Amino acid sequence: MYDFILKANPRIYSWVIFMNRLCFFATLLHFKKKSFIFAFATELHLKLFFIEFIFIIMILSKKILPFLVLIFSTLVLFSSCEDDEDPVIPNEEEVITTLTYTLTADGQPTVVLSFKDLDGDGGNSPVITGGTLAANTVYEGKIELLNEIEGEDITEEIEEEDDEHQFFFSATGLDLAVAYNDTDGTNPVGLQTTVSTGEATTGTLKVTLRHEPSKDAEGVSDGVITNAGGETDIEVEFDVTVE
């Protein structure tokens, strides 16, 4: 209906504004008289005001609409890019089905302490094998970890993320001490150790792997688990005899 306004010369818009203001003042002058002029001026003023309003809206929409479309498209693009970003997944505790602790010493048979739980969280109990160590002997210890369900070498993952892992060793009833032989550059890890036996004893050796321990906490670098925190990836208690 008002397409002609947009096609017309800008003078038409100026005329509309002028006549609208004129009718408005005429309405004010004849407000108290309620005369025919008042009624005519009021009606004309309203019509011209409506035409002016439509004119402004149509002009603004032609100028602003492309800008609004650009803003909306940009927002959609950024939203899409954010949705496409891969979420940051924190390192999870390792799935470990097999742990072997191999101990070797000059002139002594190799001792392998092992843990196997090949069905993972299944109903079968793990198979734990202890061993016998010679008294007053120094052994070199090496720990290897596997996830045989997925065919993964967890030892390599521990080596790659050594600053986020640490083994702890606790002997009960044994004359035995374990010392770290490896570090993450600053703090111990425990894949490589030295095990020193004393007099003949019988007891247990507990091996615990902590994920993201507080390595700077008191006693942790000395192998004391009390203040380590973190999550336990695996904990195994081996029956050991020193003779």
Structure description:
With 243 residues, this protein is α+β, with helices and mostly antiparallel strands. It has 2 domains: 3-84; 98-242, Immunoglobulin-like. 33% of the residues lie in helices and 30% in strands. The strands form 2 sheets. Strands 1, 2, 3, 5, 6, 8 and 9 form a 7-stranded antiparallel sheet that branches. The chain has a 4-stranded mixed sheet with strand order 4-11-10-7, with no helix packed on it. The longest helix is centred in the first third of the chain and has 49 residues, at 36-84. The chain is rod-shaped, with a radius of gyration of 42 Å. The N and C termini lie far apart (107 Å). Residues 1-6 have low confidence and may be disordered.
Task: Please summarize what this structure is.
With 243 residues, the protein is of the alpha+beta class. The protein is built from 4 helices and 11 strands; from the N terminus they run H-H-H-E-E-E-E-E-E-H-E-E-E-E-E. The radius of gyration is 42 Å and the shape is rod-shaped.
Largest sheet: 7 strands, antiparallel
Element order, helices and strands?
Answer: HHHEEEEEEHEEEEE
Question: What share of residues is helical?
Answer: 25-40%
The tally of domains stands at: 2
Count of separate DSSP helical elements: 4
Number-wise, the strands total 11
Q: Please tell me the overall pLDDT.
A: 80
How would you describe the shape? rod-shaped
**End-to-end CA span:** 107 Å
C-alpha Rg (nearest Å) = 42 Å
CATH architecture of the largest domain: Sandwich
Low-confidence stretches: 1-6
Strand fraction band?
Answer: 25-35%
Task: Provide the structure class.
Answer: alpha+beta
Which CATH top level class of the largest domain fits? Mainly Beta
- The CATH topology name of the largest domain reads Immunoglobulin-like
